[in-house]
Amino acid sequence: MSVNDTVHNDNFTWNRQVYQRLKLALSLGLRRQLFLAVCDDLHLRNQVAARLHSTLAYPVGQVLYQPSNAQENSTPAYPRLVTLRLNLNDPNPIVQINQWVANYPPPIIGASKDTPGKVSPIPAFQIVGVEQLTKQPVATQRLFLHYLRLSEQYFSTQGSSRFLESNLLLWIPRPWLSAIQQSAPQFWHCRTGVFVFAGEPTPATQNSRYPERFSNSRSLDVGNLDQSISDESVTQAEFKTTASELKFEKNSNFSAQTPENNVHKIQSDTASIIESKTMPQQESTIRSGSGNEQQLLSSLSHISSELTELVLATINTKITQDIEDDWQPQLILLEIEELHLQQLPGEILAEAYHRLGNLYRLRIEQGESTLENLMVAIIAYQEAISYNEISPQLPDILNDLGTLYWMLYRTPPNSEEGQTYIEQAIEFYQLALNTISSQTHPETYARVQNNLGTAYGDLARFSQPSENWQQAVLAYSEALNYRTADMDSLKYAACQNNLGTAYWHLGQYNQPIVHLNKAIAAYNQALIHYNPQEEPLKYGMIQNNVGTAYWNLAQYEQSAENLQLAIDVYNEALKYRTPANVPSACAATQNNLGTAYWNLANLSQTPKEARQKYLQLCINAYEESLALAHSLSSNSLSFDLFASHNNLGLAHYQLVIDKSFNTDKAIRSQHLEVALEHHLQALNGLNKQTEVYQTTFGYMVKTIRAFHNELGIQGQNFALSKVPSQLLPEILSKL
Fold it and tell me: Radius of gyration of the chain from Cα atoms?
């Protein structure tokens, strides 16, 4: 379906997709863009405009400017999107915008005694209220159109108006769309994109039912156009997901290793592989061109302006580019325009759009997974499908569309729209599966099923985790029915690892013993096909996964045996996850090893003489983990650093209070001092209102009591001298 089509059988699906494209267009930060949003339903218009404002004006959790030192001036929040209501007395949007900028000039960022700083970017503006002109005299309506005709100069002349360094979004009902096309053709010609929402016109008598409001409320109901992500609260595990690191192999397959997850301080790796069919690089049939292709693109009338502007953006924003990268996408667009003018069959047009999509897919495979490149590939592939729905390449295009939407979810700043993008990816994967037979296309079928499993795993972060992980298990299992080790041992191993991780997650919600045993079996199948000498990092990663599964299983059955197995496997993983090769992964596995030793030391059946040994090994592992962790960026860690500090302190404390720990007072005092130090480090990073903070505070009080028991009042006073003064009143009340 063309992006400019206005009819859709399912208004909700259509409107959601239009909203996502509009939001993305505004988020790209391109300059001098003019967007028209067409919506007859005022209630829907108010909701969408309010959601855009609340999402883009002051992004939640984003610090606009944080001074790097005390000499710099702090900067008040300055919006990225401003909503204005059209002044019906003088309906000139340009004057209104310039007046707003004059009243609220952009602040200076980063100014200090030594540096002048820089001016904040001018915000984008969305104008609402055009529909009210219908109730105004004809003269006022004509005046509005006159102002639009005059404003053409602001869009076509560089530097003509400061506000045009940003974007303008004009909300209009459908009748005014026709009026602008006919009576303000210059303004219409300058448009960048038109976004048409489906909905019945709102009668004038009903306007008062829906008060128009523009706030930062994230609870605003937008008819589920924008599905907000709720804060996760998972009993068994805490999932910390960031953008994945994309790795492309020689066969041009999309592949990604998802981040490591912290699970009760036990880390679990996954290697979720998103794949696409190998694509031979194709060249455009046009091999020559003058230097004015970029100017010609602005006059294309048969290609959506959204696609054209995105292509231009990918050219303008490239830091380094060779000649072919510069002209090839432009020439393909010109070729597509010529095919439209010649009214050639849809199959030929589809092939040209497909070639454009392939060109950008190749860029993405080479690491340029920007929002613009992803959107160009998506729109080009969708156009290809709209012109030829029976192409033999349809399954591969649908699979690639699914993968592109999956990557769109993984590309910042799209985390807010994650669920929507993943659901769209799943839809395309399922469409791809409906177009092929597992018997006639086993390789493609297995690839799409594997991708579908990965998408369901990501969807589990947002809703129905048990059900979606079950769907992931089914998809990976189905892929393995048609992907054998004899066909491609590494892809088979990767899919087995994915299946193991899906079973591990499923075990956090139901039938833990059954699912954890299946996870271990799948991981072990994967290990068979990874040579540790050739694939040391992947081999070490899966060994860590096996250890995590055994650790989990120990919570339900054969605790001592499974914890010992987990320890053995973690030690095996550390042979390949070394501080030199992968320091963050090594720190995570050392952290897991420390936790496994701590659990083993605290089992009731563990002999007293063994308990001290396990606690000392626990301390050694945690110290190795923390030493590495503090040398790395916190963003690269996959486990809770403050929890590790607390656990290390607890291990030192337990070693001292163990009755079989026979040593002198100096060594006991040293252990207690280290315990107190780590509990305090944990408290420094925790929120006082949380249960974790109170638990850690309790451990600190116990440690101070142990000072008193071991060293008397002098020892207690020594411990209190180490504590920040603001904590003393509460501590003294508990001693």
Answer: 30
CA distance 732 to 496: 55
- Cα distances from 131 to residues 7, 134, 172, 205, in angstroms, run 22, 6, 6, 13
What's the rounded Cα separation, in Å, for the pair 479 and 492?
9
Report which of 541, 244, 267, 194 is spatially closest to residue 422, judged by C-alpha positions. 244
* The three-state (H, E, C) secondary structure of 639-679, written as one string: CCHHHHHHHHHHHHHHHHHCCCCCCCHHHHHHHHHHHHHHH
Q: Residue 299: its pLDDT value, please?
A: 63
Note the pLDDT tens digit of each residue in 586-624.
999 999 999 999 999 999 999 988 999 999 999 999 999
Domain positions in the chain are 11-61+77-110+119-206
Q: Which residues contact 191 (CB under 8 A, 6 or more apart)?
A: 34, 35, 36, 305
Q: For residues 360 and 325, what is the distance between their CA atoms, to the nearest angstrom?
A: 10
Q: How far apart are CA 83 and CA 466, in angstroms?
A: 41
Contact indicator for 672, 706 with CB cutoff of 8 Å: yes
Domain range 11-61+77-110+119-206, its CATH number among 3.40.50.300, 3.40.630.100, 3.20.20.70, 1.20.1050.10: 3.40.50.300
Helix, strand, or coil (residue 725)? helix
Which helix (H) or strand (E) segment is 334 a member of? helix 323-341
Residue 4 has pLDDT above 70, yes or no: no
Q: Rounded to 5 degrees, what are φ and ψ at 169?
A: -115, 120
pLDDT band at 211 (very low <50, low <70, confident <90, very high): very low
Q: CA separation (Å) from 408 to 48, 62, 299, 404, 640?
A: 21, 20, 29, 6, 28
Rounded to 5 degrees, φ, ψ at 19 are -60, -45
pLDDT in tens, 457-483: 999 999 999 999 999 999 999 999 999
